[in-house]
Input
Amino acid sequence: MTENITMPAPAEELPLTDSVKEALAIAKRGCDELIIEAEFAQKLARSEKTGTPLRIKLGLDPTAPDLHLGHTVVLNKMRQLQDLGHVVIFLIGDFTSLIGDPSGRNATRPPLTREQIEENAMTYFKQASLVLDPEKTEIRYNSEWSDALGARGMIKLAAMYTVARIMERDDFSKRFKAGTPISVHEFLYPLMQGYDSVALKSDLELGGTDQKFNLLVGRELQRQVGQEPQCILTMPLLEGLDGVQKMSKSKGNYVGIKEPGNVQFGKLMSISDDMMWRYYELLSFKSIQEIEKLKKAVAEGMNPRDVKVAFAQEIVERFHSKADAEAALQDFVNRTHGGIPDDIPTVKLSGAPLPIGNLLKQAGLCPSTSDAMRMVQQGAVRINSEVISDKALKVGAGTMVVQVGKRRFAKVELA
Amino acid sequence: MTENITMPAPAEELPLTDSVKEALAIAKRGCDELIIEAEFAQKLARSEKTGTPLRIKLGLDPTAPDLHLGHTVVLNKMRQLQDLGHVVIFLIGDFTSLIGDPSGRNATRPPLTREQIEENAMTYFKQASLVLDPEKTEIRYNSEWSDALGARGMIKLAAMYTVARIMERDDFSKRFKAGTPISVHEFLYPLMQGYDSVALKSDLELGGTDQKFNLLVGRELQRQVGQEPQCILTMPLLEGLDGVQKMSKSKGNYVGIKEPGNVQFGKLMSISDDMMWRYYELLSFKSIQEIEKLKKAVAEGMNPRDVKVAFAQEIVERFHSKADAEAALQDFVNRTHGGIPDDIPTVKLSGAPLPIGNLLKQAGLCPSTSDAMRMVQQGAVRINSEVISDKALKVGAGTMVVQVGKRRFAKVELA
Output
């Protein structure tokens, strides 16, 4: 804890150059809220003047991640800021994970070991590096300064915030009113996270809109110890493929970054034209100006489907390769222009609902169920042209065209 | 923090011997609440059976004390328990004092140094030893185990209690409802105090009725780590000499344990007969049986004034000496039987209000103001038969008999 507090002298207000204004526009692209814009403009101007990059914090839980495009919205914003020359701090919140669930209510959540935490962090970093520039990313663990607080530091930290202000957090006030138990330690977590900003001397913290409360705590704590407070940039939660609900694995409306390229491609081609522009804004590496040009072209008669293809290819290329993006396009074209031969065999099977692996084996499309599983995993299996990605799928009774890879087909009558 | 929790096997229920029943009656004498009596009876029975003394905790702030009789109610109870063979732990809550006021709102309350804390604790212990048996008193400082908790231990501790339960504490719920700020660290203090009971393996904790909430936290935390929970004994707050308000220095209705014997004696003789029995119950070392005998004697015609004299003498003897108790009685008798000579000189003074020291010097009753201060301190100064204990007293205009010691008198006409 900083013992002696000296407030920094108020900085002179710098004029905003064109490049600062441009950087500000990039930072604000697609964002939900920037707190406070004028302060952030000054930070950008000072950074430009002094040649000192801004320090941008992204706090992460050290859980084993399996990212989908929704998670990459914030990463994408960081990438844009990295491209402007700033430094991203990938902050692993390992401290509390080393404790586990201290309430002991969740016996199935034992504390993570240091090895598990580092492995999870590296898995996350590897996935995130498909979006971020790893050269301009610093990885830090908050146990570095949290343990050093000690019991006394924790009390001092807790003294910096009032119960009433912590209770302003939506979930706390709701739970308190509903009589749902809140453990006292849950009040300490936002403070620990805020203290991370103090320890890192963060200039900007990014998060989802649902993180706004926690990000503001950091701002307040920095002010209290006499640091210039960080700005806050919240990004919206990305809508899923349905264009209505937030993208989430459990809702099935997601595009996983590790899904096969042709699966990603097919899913992205299914979104509405409106959602396409939303995805462009939040996920594309194309500049604001380039996107404006595309919009203009569509307004003047260009088929939006072609713009969607370009976007889907950009995403597949980012998470796989240019070749995969080409193959996914080709595959999509084949399929949508009707790639199913006329002379496919008809197979009669019984035992519905039948696991997908058994169906493929019994239809003679795969030599074994394990081979069948592999094909599903590769996104090479389709039923009635729809890619099947769920290895646990049980197929119900009916007549359907089943396809494995480019050439194996069967018309299955399943009873 | 205890990591592995094993609940103790439920102990067999022991029969209560006569001596255990007697001890229970002594423990309950004058108490406000004993939580839970049946549990405490079992602790006493087990202690008797195994010859292991109970560990009785009294938590204290390491502030410089200036005790009055009200403070000694709890000490007296501890003394009774010591006389039954149990061990008293004089727990100095130094940990939080070493932090000071972490909110920084009270700049006039800097953290105490280790030396100041130990000095205050010793001052307290020295005063308390006039009531307690110092041989059966252990002095402990809670920084011993609180620092060792570290930041993680603090979080684990905080996880053991819910916000809703902490909010049940009267002052918290009132302040929260009134919108008066409560710092988050204030929620940690009852938990730290409760953890002291865990660290000490306390069997019984004593406190004023106003401490009940905090004492119960200790009970709960012990249960959570698998210790047999401590029992709680709350003592009432002693009424002052007026018999109405709580004894307090600021209300002037107190008997300080460092006040001169004749001052104490005079003050105690001023209480009502009803209050006298209350004081006997809470402050006398006389047994329950002895007090019953006195009550019976009064009912049968004994002058209650004589019972009051015996009590006042017991108190003066405890805090001074047997000789002082005798002298105080003699002094009281002299005074109440009219000890003022007829032929005292009359002195005319001006300058009212006049500091007491100047008055005594100018009236020729003391050779110097510093001598006058000493006489006030010794309780040797009276105005109109009332002992003056306030060295800063300014005497207003009027005519009064001023007395110093046994023989020096003057009739002062102050203008």
Notes: Chain A touches chain B at residues 95-96, 98-99, 101-104, 146-164, 166, 172, 176, 179, 181-188, 191 (CB under 8 Å).
